[in-house]
Amino acid sequence: MDYQKISGQGFNLHLIEKKLTKRNIVEIRLADKIKYEDITKRYFLNKYLISITNNYPTERLLSIKTEDLYNVHLGSTIERIGNISLFVIGISFLNERYTEKGMTDQTIKFLKEIVYNCNFNEEQFKVIKKRIIEEIKDEEESKKYKATISLKEAMDKNSPFAFRRVYLKQLNSLTLKDITDYYQQVISESDINIYAVGDFSFTAFSKKILKNFSFPSKPKLFKNNCLIHNKFRLLSKKVMKKDKVNQSILKIGFKLKDLNLFEQEYVMPIYNEILGGGSNSKLFNEVREKHSLAYYSSSLYSPYDNVLYISSGISKENYRLTKKLISKIINDLQQGKFTEEDITSAKNNMINRFNMNRKESSFLISRQVLKQYYKAKDIDEVIKQIKKVTKKQIIDASKKIKLDTIYFLYGGESNETD
């Protein structure tokens, strides 16, 4: 895989070769330190930008244009890496050899239209606002989402890992001027990178991007992007909430203390795989299969947030037994009560996922983004380092896991089902 980085006017261009792919991808990523007061504005603008433009003043006309461009896929999202918020606008389109001459130029100009020629008006503002309110309502109806966000807020509501995608209170007070002002701020103050993946000539494709895009901002260098915790509980916090749920949900949150970079990037992912990463994990085999205490039980490790979560779907009456068994599993791992076979299985699972994902264009972009903000290594180097991890290193890292909060969302007997 060839890669090239080129400096543009106010941005860096990253070209990634992927031979024989039918679709090319271009993503514009505007990064800044995450701020609570900007969360809803950022999400709103992200949705608004891909809805209409001055040349395509209705969503229907914009949709027709994507069809004219051989079914271009236009999308946007907000991502987060620790303290960094990434405002993403992306486009996926057929390689010109499968369409007609000039389509790449037209598609890039269409993306330029999205970024620079947005049609800000009160009518569309109300449409997007109503749409986001419906999203919030749908989210609140998800009990798994409620349990997850409630756990995070109970751990530390002021930390970026606990921030929601959007806040209704902020949304209700939002004005069109807030959005237009924030658009100018994003365009002029962000660290901007454009990523392009596909089967194309780097020279020819870079000329098209450099010709169409320029920004008033200058590339920034962000430091200390991972979240570091300064407060750890001597006694874990317990939160129990009753609700109408089909099955009770047990969520457990841990903070990680003083991990070194090798532990953070290579050791803890293997620990997580052994603990609750799949069907060979301790949580799956002990909590679900052997003791039949849970409908599901798994763990999730976030290296950028220095946190680890355990999630289990259980019956209310199994709460204490499940909690006790999970605690035993955590303690057993700290005492080295796992085998070399467990380690080998975990490493193989991780390496297989890397080898499968490295074929995906979106994964190739995400790795370059992580290199930018997290100093991640190339996949081959990651695999090499994973293979080096020892049992002692896993035990040592496991002792840096600090229990923070236990959150239990439970239902009455009449609304608990399998």
First-to-last CA distance: 48 Å
Largest sheet: 6 strands, mixed
What would you call the shape? globular
Beta content comes to 15-25%
What does the radius of gyration come to? 23 Å
Order of helix and strand elements from N to C terminus: EEEHHEEHHHHHEHEEHHEEHHHHHE
Low-confidence stretches: 414-418
Q: What class do helices, strands and sheet pairing give?
A: alpha+beta
Q: Quick check: average pLDDT?
A: 95
Secondary structure tally, helices:
15
Strand numbers in spatial order across the main sheet: 1-2-6-3-5-4
Helix content: 40-55%
Q: What is the number of strand segments?
A: 11
Tell me what the structure shows.
It is a single chain. By secondary structure, the chain is an alpha+beta fold. Helices cover 46% and strands 22% of the residues. It has helices spanning 39-49, 59-68, 103-116, 122-141, 143-156, 168-173, 176-189, 202-212, 261-276, 282-290, 319-334, 340-357, 361-374, 379-388, 391-398; strands at residues 3-7, 12-17, 23-33, 73-81, 84-94, 191-198, 237-242, 248-256, 294-302, 307-314, 401-410. Strands 1-2-6-3-5-4 form a 6-stranded mixed β-sheet, with helices on both faces. 34% of the residues are buried.
Features:
418 residues; alpha+beta; 11 strands; globular; disordered C terminus
Q: What's the quick description here?
A:
By secondary structure, this protein is of the alpha+beta class. The protein has helices spanning 39-49, 59-68, 103-116, 122-141, 143-156, 168-173, 176-189, 202-212, 261-276, 282-290, 319-334, 340-357, 361-374, 379-388, 391-398; strands spanning 3-7, 12-17, 23-33, 73-81, 84-94, 191-198, 237-242, 248-256, 294-302, 307-314, 401-410. It has 15 helices and eleven strands.
